[in-house]
Structures are given as structure tokens and as C-alpha cells.
Fold:
Amino acid sequence: MGKLIKNHCARLIVLTAALCTSSLPFSLPSMTKTKKSKKKLTQAPPPPTDQIAAALEGFFWPKIFWDFLTTNLDPAVRPIPVLQCINLLLGILAFAWEWPLPLLSFAKTAMHRSIEARLAVYPLASLSALLLYQGTNPGIYYIIGMGVYFWAYSEGEVVCPEPWALPRRRPVGTV
Structure:
């Protein structure tokens, strides 16, 4: 068995938080008629597990997760969707950071190789996702991903310049 490369594991968790969804295409619960002519509400789709879909749904159904405690945060989502825009931008940033496309030439930069920068940005992404009602799942995924990134950082792992590459072993010595 090989050794777990924790930054690859954390990258997959953060990619799940940023882009992997369970509710696309967007569908609303619909009313159906039964034989007794009573209207029945069909089951609602599962909540999105990604920050980008949560931000897009937040444009149509603006809601703060913590509105049962206070309504002071409601101006962040309506009438101007500030929190939704922040979530959309941070979700796109997390996706571009963790899955660097060769067209963007982001893959070999120092920002891409820095675990410290990820540990500075992802708490903000998690906080903004947790504030939005639709973004609680991605916020939890970000927290788990940050924990795994911290584990990788504390063990001295490095992110390779090429995405999804294995780290090179240092030569031990000559025989």
C-alpha cells in the first residue's frame, strides 16, 4: 500500500465543495394530482453540495441560514445579492485553484503550490458558504478540506508544480 498524499485528498474534498452538485439540473417541487383529486407535493430535490450552485440558487431564493436567530444579516442577500456574488466568486476561485486548467496558466504559479495561501482563503470561503442557507453543505466540506490541508502542511507535504503529479523522491545516497 502506498502513502496517502493528503494534499490530493484535500484537493478532492475542496473540489466537491466548489463544484460537485447533487441537484443539477435545478428543479422545483411540483404538484401532482392523485386519484382522489387531492394535490400532493412531490419530494423536493436534495440541497446542493457545491458553492457555485448554492450561490445561483441564492439569487432566486435569498435566505440567510441564521435568520432564525436574527434578521440583521438579511441586507446581505436582498435587495442587493452581495453574499451570493461573493459565494459565486469564491466557488469559481476554489474550482480554478484546485483544478488548474492549462489555458489559464495558473498551474505552475507559486499561488497554486502554496498550502498556506489555501489555509488563508478557504476559511473565508467556508464562512461565506455557511452564511448562505443553500451553502451549509459546501461550508462543512470546506472545513473538512481545511483540516486535511492543515494535516498535510503539518507533515511537511508540498504541492507539486504540475497538478495531480506525485512528489519526487530525494535521492537517498549512492550505493
